[in-house]
Every structure is written in C-alpha cells, then in structure tokens.
Design a protein that fits this description.
The protein has about 140 residues and is an all-alpha fold. Helix content is about 85%, strand content about 0%. Keywords: Cell inner membrane, Cell membrane, Membrane, Transmembrane, Transmembrane helix.
C-alpha cells in the first residue's frame, strides 16, 4: 500500500513538471493525487467497484483542489488535473486496444465500455465536487 501511495504521489508530480505548473505547488499537487488514490483504494476495497471508487476518488480530488485553490490563490485546475492522473484507467484502455489487435472483439467491447464508464465517473466526480464546493461556499456567505 505504501508503494502505491508513493507511486500516486509521483504520478501526480510528473504532470506538474510536464504542464509547467509553478514548482511551489508541486508537493500540494502530489498530495492531491495521494488523496484521490487513497480514497480510490478505500472505496474499492469496500465495494469492489472501480466506477464508484473512481467517482469518489475524483470527488475528493475536486474538493481538495477547490480548497487549495482558495488557500494558495491559484486556479483549481492546477491541482485537479495532476490529481486525477493516478485514477485514469490507462491499463484498461491498453487492454481494450490489445484485445482489438488480437481479434477478441467482445472482450474489447467490454473493456472499452469499462474504460469509458470509469473516465465518465472521473469527469462527473470532478464536476460535481466543484459545483458542490461553490454551492456550499455561497450558502455559507449568506
């Protein structure tokens, strides 16, 4: 588990370097990936659903990103994009293409649908967290 957390941190730090985000935010973006991946692991071990785990992990990444954006006075996207990298279903997408090349079209369809659903869950989790955070913030001000 420690190995996965370290890899999630590195998986979030390298996009920060790639996208030329301010180096002062490198640790915070790495922590965002750790929060998302740890949440994913916790939810997945509880219900064995990669879709639900990806959704809740992305939701936590979005909440953390919005919080850090206000705290560090920077756009939330500087944390959310690197933070979701560990959640992206890359191996499933690879397996989809591999099945297509090998002619296993029904398995490729299954893997492809799983990839699309998990990717949609990640996008929906980020969108819902940003909307929820802004809604709660507006209600607290009133």
């Amino acid at each position: 588990m420690i190995k996965q957390i370290v890899l999630a941190f590195l998986g979030s730090v390298f996009p920060v370097i790639l996208f030329n985000i301010d180096r002062k935010k490198i640790v915070w973006a790495g922590l965002c990936g750790v929060i998302g991946w740890t949440t994913y692991l916790g939810v997945y071990s509880f219900n064995k659903s990669s879709v639900a785990a990806a959704f809740i992990g992305a939701f936590m990444v979005g909440i953390y990103s919005e919080f850090m954006a206000i705290r560090l006075k920077t756009p939330a996207i500087e944390f959310s994009i690197p933070g979701i990298f560990p959640l992206v279903p890359g191996i499933t997408a690879y397996n989809t293409i591999n099945c297509i090349v090998e002619g296993q079209y029904s398995l490729a369809y299954s893997k492809g649908m799983q990839t699309i659903i998990v990717a949609g869950a990640i996008a929906f989790g980020i969108m819902l967290s940003c909307t929820t955070y802004k809604f709660v913030k507006r209600k607290i001000r009133l």
